[in-house]
Design brief:
11 strands; alpha/beta; Restriction Endonuclease; 7 helices
Length: 213
Amino acid sequence: MKRVLKEQIWSEFIELMDATPPHSEEVFHQFLVKYPALIPVWRPLDGVVYSKFKLGNEHVTDFAFVRDDTPGLRWTFIEIEKPSDRLLRKDGSPTAALTHAIGQLHQWTEWFRNNLDYVKNNWPHGTRARKIGMADPHFILVMGRREGDLWEKRALLQRFGGGVQVRTFDGLKHNLSSPAVDNDATLRCLSYSSSGWDKLLSSMKLEISYYST
């Protein structure tokens, strides 16, 4: 494994975000695949986060992970846009890009509610889901930069989200500083097919320093 300090990871990420012209969404997706400690996960089962996880044949998430929760097994789905996307207009109203992205995640919500049996029978940890039940999923949108008075308007952003947690790309730095995984754990990013086939895309051993393959 190659040793990579979190300061180096964040410095590279800042360079990507500040680039002119702006990079595509896929560039940022692949950077998060390479360094999954940046992804806003919370104690994922088996230390696994999935890249481009499919919701049937209708939708594709950027990232997804599942964890144990008090009401049952809980999935979290993450959509990333671009750091260059604006979240709010000057008058404080949501931009068309933000409205569109939130609408997409609300479609994921509807799909999940209508396909619980499919989830329990075809997704990872289905046996556990059938045994202990399932909690409502969480949805996270990562979009834009923290600029101006946006931090003071974070409550407004969450209200616009309507159940979708809205985070900026700058806010991902917190994940490097305080990763929500067990100390000395390995966080793995996988691709997953409905046939149950996993492919390892990357892994990081989370210690005082960060390691990447």
